[in-house]
Amino acid sequence: MSDALLSIVGVSAGYDAVDVIHGVDMQAKRGEITCLLGANGAGKSTLIKTIFGVLRPRSGSIHFDGVEISRLESHEIVRRGLVAVPEGSRVFPKMSVLDNLRVGAYLERSPTVIAANLERVFALFPRLHERIDQFAGTLSGGERSMLSIGRSLMCRPSMLVIDEPSLGLSPRFVKENFGIIRDLCTDDCAILLVEQNARQTLDISEYGYLMSQGHITCHGAASELRHSPDVARAYFGGQDSEQTNNEAMT
């Protein structure tokens, strides 16, 4: 993969004296959706924390847009255009939709730019505009997910790292969310999509990685991973590979 916006090389990290991820090599290109798949406990969340400076890598390097970021503080990483959308549609429940969005613009000083970014978010998510003065805690799960993504867009990121966007959502909202994520990916904003939902994630991704027990066990074009027995084994263990591959993709 060339033209990498995010490049992770040989990264190991963990908690206390125990490594959770081991020698991770991974790239995400400009203008594409790259996905990181893996069952619960595979190490995906640890990798995200390492990318954003919450954990320091014990070995290896992380570059974003050509700059080494593995020793930067989280706010410095965000300032460079790498922004996380955390799992669980985390919002400030006792703040209005508008105030939640304004929190996402904390790095921006210009009222004109903030207003333009708000307009863009409301164009993407008209439902948020309809609920502009409503407390975020009263929104549905799907609406909170929209708000979480919208808040992250308020600082005009070059890349969004979206963690488990299907978590806790109904099938209807999952489908809607993934359609929105697909539309968000442009030449100006790449996406790293971290998910357990293999089928729908691969449907909207260009390239994918599979993580198991802290290791990247396979990677390739999303169209190839869609039918990979390795993906099925990661989710269902040692069952019959043809059967589990069908189950993993439904």
Automatic annotation (TrEMBL):
Ranges where the ABC transporter domain occurs: 6-238
Key words, A-Z: Amino-acid transport, ATP-binding, Cell inner membrane, Cell membrane, Membrane, Nucleotide-binding, Transport
InterPro entries per the UniProt record, alphabetical: AAA+_ATPase (IPR003593), ABC_transporter-like_ATP-bd (IPR003439), ABC_transporter-like_CS (IPR017871), BCAA_Transport_ATP-bd_LivF (IPR052156), P-loop_NTPase (IPR027417)
UniProt GO molecular function: ATP binding; ATP hydrolysis activity; branched-chain amino acid transmembrane transporter activity
Pfam families, sorted: ABC_tran (PF00005)
Protein origin, superkingdom: Bacteria
Any single biological process term in GO: L-amino acid transport
Keyword Nucleotide-binding: yes
Family per similarity comment: Belongs to the ABC transporter superfamily.
Protein name per Swiss-Prot or TrEMBL: Branched-chain amino acid transport ATP-binding protein LivF
Originating species: Caballeronia sordidicola
